[in-house]
What we know:
Elements: H1 2-12, H2 16-22, E1 37-40, E2 46-50, E3 58-66, E4 69-79, E5 85-90, E6 96-104, E7 107-111, E8 120-126, E9 129-135, E10 143-149
Antiparallel strand pairs: 1-2, 1-10, 2-3, 3-4, 4-5, 5-6, 6-7, 7-8, 8-9, 9-10
Amino acid sequence: xxxxxxxxxxxxxxxxxxxxxxxxxxxxxxxxxxxxxxxxxxxxxxxxxxxxxxxxxxxxxxxxxxxxxxxxxxxxxxxxxxxxxxxxxxxxxxxxxxxxxxxxxxxxxxxxxxxxxxxxxxxxxxxxxxxxxxxxxxxxxxxxxxxxxxxx
Length: 152
């Protein structure tokens, strides 16, 4: 606890300039920048949020609401590398790792054939909408999601 208070006191004394100097900013032209936004389903029951890139990483979370409460949540992280890796923590448990298998201008597909379900996760930006689907690796048992920006 003492160490946490010391760290908190130290970090409170840092200026934003010092913080920016400590961690290099990712270039604004991150290949997956198109996913960055707050996305909500037409019904408002599902929301997915993706942060701006931080040192090449993208951080996200998804929430599904039912009867006024959270019925499902997951945290996500896209890690940079020769191939992007999507780490998913459904209900905070994980990670389940999915490796990039295909990337387009504004789309990306991740695969983990050893995972029970889903084995495939696909995202695609179409104008001001984000479309996603999950499925088995062969494309069966597909479930589609469509989101619009929360910020519009």
